[in-house]
Amino acid sequence: MKDIPNSTEARDIKNLMHPYTNARKLETEGPLVIESGEGIYVTDNNGNRYLEAMSGLWSAGLGFSEKRLVAAATRQMEKLPFYHIFSMRSHGPAVDLAEKLVNLAPVPMSKAFFTNSGSEANDTAVKMLWYRAHALGTPEKKKVISRLRGYHGVTVVAASMTGLPYNHTSFGLPLPGFLHTGSPHYWRDAEPGESEADFVARRARELEELILAEGPETIAAFIGEPVNGGGGVIVPPQGYWQAIQAVLDKYDILLIADEVICGFGRTGNMFGTETFGMKPDMMTLSKQITSSYQPFSALLVNERVFAPIADESNRIGTFGHGYTGGGHPVGAAVALETLRIIEEDKLLDHVGDVGAHMQAGLAALTGHPLVGEHRGVGLIAALELVTDKETKAGLDKPGALGGIAAAKMQANGVISRNMNDALAFCPPMIITHAEVDDMLARTKRSLDETAAEIGM
Ligand code: PMP
């Protein structure tokens, strides 16, 4: 298709620069053009249908054809297509959504602040902490600790907090003042013979050592995803968040829960914070908040965060931060409707039920010669692919094995995604048992074909 003049593929290559893409590879291979969506499926411009096992970007929780969201957007477009909430202006959808989110929060939260993307929400969290540090007369308390393999987005600050090489290499990041500690990836990072409990204690000890080396008076916050998605779906071991929280409390360091993937049902509760018993001071939210039908994100902040910022804005004259589209009425209306659907359709119960079915099916695949580990919770999971279960090695280049498997999945009608050699599953929350079974059967076939291709 890409060689046909004026095809969508040819015009794409000519004009469109893609995010997260090898631009030269795109020129030779051309893009996959998705044209329409229905339920958990999307269809490309050649009529091939794919089961979207990633919900797009971990985000279209209600699938690709929820008419109620279309109707909510249309109603709001007709009534008030845009207004902002700067300078003491407001509108109903922003107020309704802020109230809804503050009430939904699993720990006491004081206010909602609206942004447009997960990255912006995380950048805003840090700017709030910096402003707060000045308000409290401790301007040196500004450093942020995140985790290796953590994913928090791509704006300059969010990318600095992200702990993945692609987001730092050749960008000259991270910025100074952004520190990384070890990931809770037990299967990959545990010492030989180390128990989960010992591994958790070691991670907590390493965090404490980092804090002491830097000076606790210089550290504002720790940020982490309840389940780390972009690093390869890393579900923390039992007791991990409690051990981390204890260290943070000891040194008066705030916790930011990045709920951009986990929020709104993904782990079987409304928030990952509940699933793992976290006690965040700030929560960043996006993706499933609108099922990604509109770009939208939000932060929830507790009174410890809000009160000094409010006082400082009074002293200075304003809180000099905000985005034109933040709290957009159409996005807010779609978010409110998404939350109504999650509640009315009892989707949290459904995720618990169909999620257990998916996890059991994926766990059964650990018998496959290529599957080193299955991990997951609710409706998010990964299969870690290896060529040698003993040494946990893959092919020569990290990600090569995962790349072959993801391509086989696509050829078998399933869109998955490999993070290095972890093959991820994060299907729309509306997926049925039968659709899970179909996804698992296609996954099994793809793994068999991958093994055959590499001569295993
Ligand atoms: N945080 C997490 C946990 C994410 O997974 C992502 C995106 N995958 C982001 C932040 C960044 O969100 P966005 O791409 O909307 O900026």
TrEMBL record:
> What is one GO biological process annotated to this record?
biotin biosynthetic process
What transmembrane ranges does the database entry give? none
Q: Which Pfam families match?
A: Aminotran_3 (PF00202)
The answer to whether the entry has keyword 4Fe-4S is no
| InterPro entries, A to Z | Aminotrans_3 (IPR005814), Aminotrans_3_PPA_site (IPR049704), PyrdxlP-dep_Trfase (IPR015424), PyrdxlP-dep_Trfase_major (IPR015421), PyrdxlP-dep_Trfase_small (IPR015422)
Transferase listed as a keyword: yes
Keyword tags: Aminotransferase, Pyridoxal phosphate, Transferase
Question: One MF term in GO for this entry?
Answer: pyridoxal phosphate binding
Q: Which Gene3D superfamilies match?
A: Aspartate Aminotransferase, domain 1, Type I PLP-dependent aspartate aminotransferase-like (Major domain)
Cofactors, names only: pyridoxal 5'-phosphate
Q: Which PANTHER family match?
A: ADENOSYLMETHIONINE-8-AMINO-7-OXONONANOATE AMINOTRANSFERASE
The record's similarity note reads: Belongs to the class-III pyridoxal-phosphate-dependent aminotransferase family.
Q: What is this protein called?
A: Aspartate aminotransferase family protein
The record lists the organism as: Seohaeicola zhoushanensis
